[in-house]
Structure formats: structure tokens, C-alpha cells
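Re: [ENG-882] Designed sequences occasionally contain unexpected residues at chain ends

Forwarding the minimal case from QA. C-alpha cells:
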């Protein structure tokens, strides 16, 4: 009888412990080449990419035209994001490697550039990171972040968009005083539980909702070290989505002068004509 009781206690303990151990989501490790190519196309040509450019390029340009956030070299690179170094698949075949033990698939873009992606069907979450050289002087661009989509993109990509996500874009260049250190400037856009507003006259959707814009500015030559400072916290909406002159309304709190090394915030309200931003 005692042996039976002991055995039952052991079984109960095993089940109790296994139930308390949190099961971590597992990344998909069975993505086909076609699926990987489709994900690559989705990230590069998804209509929500235009929204990311508006919030990371046009918004800072209107809030702080002369601040480090609006540096011309950074703006030119962001115009091409995400995945600024795209590939013409007509002339080259995408050759994916992986997955590795952590579920990452790697696409080598050239001898010094690569893209990594990892997808979780259970979470509808795509993680990515890219690294590529921009010149022979050691300057590089780094992109990283994640998108949580409104549907499983392995099943359906119709009207898909990221309801939550974070996208970071950094430009790094060697310090003049110490080439072993890299100066770094970049922006991060984050959002959670947002929606998409379709513009019927433009055949495109604009991400709208609550978002945050952060800046990293590290310059060893000028003793500047700012990491992920909140530059703007805002909410966006579209007025006149069914007209030929829709207006993107953005309001919230912003850094007072656009200088990440100083303190102070104030309120703002912007009305941006989307026809101009969409290049029509």
C-alpha cells in the first residue's frame, strides 16, 4: 500500500511539474523555398511598407526639419526600407539556407550582406534581421524587428497587415577617432493592436492607431550616447478615406526640439495630405 501511495505521489508530482513548465512557442522549421520567397516579397512589397516610411520619414521631417532625426543620409536609406537591399529575382535565384537550431532561415545577398527571417505560425509572427554593407569605408545598414500579422501568412496573404510590430533601422559608420568603434544613428517605430484604413481612390491601405517613434544616436567622436529615446508618442487616423484628398491626422506628444540629447516634450497635431505623400 505504501509503495502504491508513493507511486501515485510521484506520478502526481510529474504531471504537476510538467503543467507548470511554460511551453515556449516553436518557430516553423518546415518553410519551403516558395514560402520563403513569398515572405520575402511580402516584406518588401507589402502596402503597409508605405505607412512605415510615412511614420519614419515624413513624420520626423514635419516635426523636426533640421534635427538629427531628419538627416538626409538617414532619410534616403529609410525610403528604401524595409529590406533596403532588395533583389531582382528575374536575374538571380534566391538561395535560402536553414533553418538553424533556433528556426532562422538565411538569405545571403552578397559577400557582406544577409537577411535572416523566422516565422511562428502559432503566433502569426515574423521576426527578421538584415545586415548589409553600403560602401567600401565600413559603413553598414542594420534592419531588425518583428511583425504580428492579422492572419497566418502561410495560409493566406490577402489583405494581410501587421496589427502589432516593431521596425528598427540603423546606419553605422566607423568612428573617426577610433575605427574599432561604430557610430550609430537610427529610428525605431513600434505599434500594438492597430488597424488599416483603405483608401478607395488610391488602392492602398494606411496603418492607423497608436504608435511610438524612438531614436538611437551614438557618436563617439562627439561623446553622444543616446539609446532608444522616445521621440514621439502618437495616434493616427484618416479623414476622407473615400475621397481623392484623404488627410492623415497625427496627434500626440513629441520631443520639443527633435534633439535626442536634450529633454522636454510638447503636444502636436499634424494634418498631412496623403495624396502628396503617396506621390499622386
Amino acid at each position: 500500500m505504501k509503495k502504491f501511495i508513493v507511486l501515485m505521489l510521484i506520478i502526481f508530482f510529474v504531471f504537476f511539474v510538467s503543467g507548470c513548465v511554460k511551453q515556449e512557442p516553436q518557430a516553423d522549421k518546415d518553410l519551403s523555398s516558395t514560402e520563403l520567397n513569398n515572405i520575402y516579397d511580402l516584406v518588401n512589397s507589402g502596402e503597409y511598407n508605405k505607412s512605415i516610411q510615412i511614420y519614419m520619414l515624413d513624420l520626423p521631417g514635419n516635426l523636426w526639419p533640421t534635427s538629427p532625426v531628419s538627416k538626409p543620409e538617414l532619410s534616403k536609406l529609410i525610403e528604401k526600407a524595409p529590406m533596403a537591399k532588395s533583389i531582382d529575382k528575374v536575374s538571380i535565384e534566391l538561395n535560402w539556407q536553414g533553418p538553424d537550431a533556433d528556426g532562422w532561415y538565411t538569405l545571403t545577398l552578397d559577400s557582406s550582406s544577409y537577411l535572416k527571417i523566422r516565422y511562428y505560425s502559432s503566433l502569426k509572427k515574423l521576426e527578421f534581421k538584415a545586415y548589409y554593407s553600403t560602401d567600401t569605408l565600413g559603413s553598414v545598414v542594420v534592419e531588425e524587428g518583428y511583425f504580428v500579422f492579422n492572419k497566418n501568412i502561410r495560409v493566406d496573404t490577402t489583405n494581410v497587415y501587421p496589427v502589432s510590430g516593431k521596425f528598427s533601422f540603423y546606419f553605422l559608420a566607423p568612428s573617426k577617432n577610433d575605427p574599432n568603434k561604430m557610430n550609430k544613428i537610427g529610428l525605431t517605430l513600434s505599434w500594438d493592436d492597430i488597424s488599416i484604413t483603405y483608401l478607395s481612390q488610391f488602392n492602398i491601405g494606411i496603418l492607423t492607431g497608436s504608435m511610438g517613434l524612438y531614436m538611437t544616436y551614438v557618436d563617439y567622436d562627439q561623446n553622444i550616447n543616446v539609446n532608444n529615446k522616445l521621440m514621439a508618442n502618437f495616434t493616427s487616423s484618416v479623414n476622407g478615406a473615400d475621397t481623392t484628398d484623404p488627410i492623415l491626422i497625427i496627434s500626440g506628444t513629441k520631443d520639443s526640439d527633435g534633439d535626442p540629447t536634450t529633454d522636454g516634450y510638447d503636444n502636436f497635431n499634424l494634418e498631412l495630405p496623403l495624396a502628396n505623400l503617396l506621390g499622386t
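QA comment: On inspection the terminal residues look reasonable. The first strand starts at residue 96 and ends at 97. Proposing we downgrade this to a documentation issue.
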